[in-house]
Amino acid sequence: MTAIVGLVTSLTALWVTLADRRRAIAKERREEAAAERRATAGEAAERARSARRAVWEEMAQAMPVQLRLISRPAGDDPASAPETWLVAVANRGPLPVTDVQVIHASGTAMPNGSEPFDLQGDSTEEVAVPNSGERPRLADITMVFTDAAGRRWQRRLTGGLCLGTLQDDGTCQWDEPRFPETATPPSGISAGATALSRSSGGCLALLVPLLVLTALGYLIYILLR
Hints:
With 225 residues, the protein is of the alpha+beta class. The chain is built from two helices and ten strands; from the N terminus they run αββββββββββα. Helices cover 40% and strands 25% of the residues.
């Protein structure tokens, strides 16, 4: 009988040991899987940040190149003379852009483009819109130019910046419009402001307990007098 009890006890202890071991192995596997998921998520987030930073840097020179529609009277009498519509092309960046062309498409007609020209840094050029008199539709006016890196861009008067890919027939295939004016810059672009904000928040966090301790000490001093 004693041998049977001993055997049962040994088997129970072995079963408990095996169960504990299985639980420990399962826990280790769960922790490893969680760590792997975190690492994968971190790598994906870093790839996304790198891709976003690369796109932003790609647009760096194209972003300061802007265009806007302006009007001027065509005669001496502003009240009676028809308006002449112009497109003001401004390069606010330090590097020149080349082969700039303003394109106006009216209805189903073929696009009518201006003569290509180069635009130095921090300069503006005005281009007359064909068939002036009536206000052109903003959607009918675009501008194309080449940056210093050789990338071909299209800027729309309605907003949006498109990168072009040169095709075999010499035309450009434009990608989806990007809107850098309304986009948030990648982390690191405004790192100075972020660091200043964090520094101010840390100083404030230290100041509040100090003020509380000072007030408490003053209260104790008053009560003991």
